[in-house]
Amino acid sequence: MKFFEKHKEGKKILFVCVENAGRSQMAEGFLRKHAPDGWIPVSAGSRPTPGLNPVAVEAMKEVGIDISKQKPKELSEELVRSSFLKVSMGCIDQAECPAVFLGNYQDWGIEDPKGKPIEKVREIRNEIEKKVKELVTTLESN
Q1: pTM of the model
Q2: Are 128 and 26 in contact (CB under 8 A)?
Q3: Active-site annotation holds for 11
């Protein structure tokens, strides 16, 4: 991932989904826990909800990460431009949010936990943690 070499001054990684209430918030929480020094996780949504998905909050507490104080944030062009890696959690198309597709971008294709029982949200949480840990391995080598 050569783009890391060009952006040493800012190390922000942006996780994006539509509501910024579940998947992207969990990814932000996992990266905050696992990231090497200097890497900054942030999440946002194209249509953020007023609050977090309480089942996602509960699932994260089960693994020792408290995301209850995090707030859904609106995706802005400034946020996109200031982040050198943008990660779509799998719910945004180019018509919904074309700004995300600028520059370095990944789509993780993670299922939305909204309305799902805790058992399914745990599976989604575990998939997100696996992807974040894979990302951290890449960050540590740069």
Answers
A1: 0.88
A2: yes
A3: no
Does residue 79 carry a catalytic annotation? no
Does 127 reside within a domain? yes
pLDDT value at 142 more than 70: no
Contacts of 31 (CB under 8 A, 6+ apart): 13, 15, 39, 41, 132, 135, 136
Helix axes 23-34, 118-140, angle to 10 degrees: 40
| Within-domain flag for 98 | yes
What domain range includes position 72?
Answer: 10-137
Active-site residue, 120 included:
no
Q: Name the band, by pLDDT with cuts 50, 70 and 90, for residue 102.
A: low
- Whether residue 89 is contained in a domain is answered as yes
In a domain, 2, yes or no: no
Which listed residue (13, 17, 18, 44) is catalytic? 17
Write out pLDDT tens, residues 28-82.
999 999 998 889 999 999 889 999 999 999 999 999 999 999 999 999 888 988 9
CATH of the domain at 54: 3.40.50.2300
